[in-house]
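Lecture 7, part 2: worked example. A protein chain together with alpha-D-ribofuranose.
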Amino acid sequence: MATAIVVAGSINMDLVVHTPRLPVPGETVLGGNLQTSGGGKGANQAVAAARLGSPTVMLGCLGQDSFGDALFAGLENAGVDCSHVKRVPGVNSGVALIGIEDGTRDNFIIASGGANRLLHAADIESHADVIAGAAVLVCQLEVPLDAVQAALQLAKQHGTRTILNAAPYCEFPAEWLALVDVLIVNETEAARLSGLPVHELEEIEHASAVLLGRGVGAVVITLGARGAHYVDAHQRAYYPAYPVQPVDTVGAGDAFVGAFAVALAEARDVEETLRFSNAVAALATTRAGAQAAMPTRAEVDAYRQQWE
Ligand code: RIB
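Predicted complex, written out as structure tokens:
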């Protein structure tokens, strides 16, 4: 089956502890049992797309350690093609330390790049054919920037649509924006990128317009429990989130991005793309874990029927 989506990005083992409250700096809090599960923004987005039934390829890097073995197997079980994932001996696979507060479900995440830091432009360039053959490329900012730049450039050269999820925020060359068809950011990332406040609808619209003016094809600002806002040269749209009782919001943004990529590959219109992506993100918050929480297409269809 032809590849619909290629994700170039990070793969982490998430080490998760629930606590009655998140610690303040210098404080120790006692939490519950340690849970380990597949994570990493890139891998989460790849799993989201694959669970929705899109043929998906992962370009990333893992150590040859036990976390690497488990992460590789987990991705393959979810239907992600890992035949181009690089394995490097003598380096730890990426790890994220995650605390989740019991009542609010707020979280903190500290990621240790490990093998993710060894994914470079040459690795991406050696898989130019994979990017050329895909409908959509998805990148984030958890791997070295030269790898992201190579992936975006190759996609542009070959007419593959590009999504940049600029997370976690870091400075990157402004000329990248001309390579990006859809920029997806949350409120914090949008504020950092635009240098503007991003909370009220008017502020969201203004920041979106500023980012659009820098050369991307479309700007999506995800608003968590408030939904998502979209703007391109021809239209602007806002769709509220679906009502949900969240268990764990880690990876919900990645669920949105993976779903958006699927909808883009399927050439859905903006309204349908946002509703679909919002539904996938909402469902992903109802289960523990990042990759483990990604819903199937049948689950998404059933959930939407219930609410629409
Ligand atoms: O977006 C959530 C992800 O961020 C986690 O799975 C963690 O691994 C970090 O990469």
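Residues 270-284 form the longest helix (15 residues). The two ends are 32 Å apart (CA to CA). Keep this in mind for problem set question 3.
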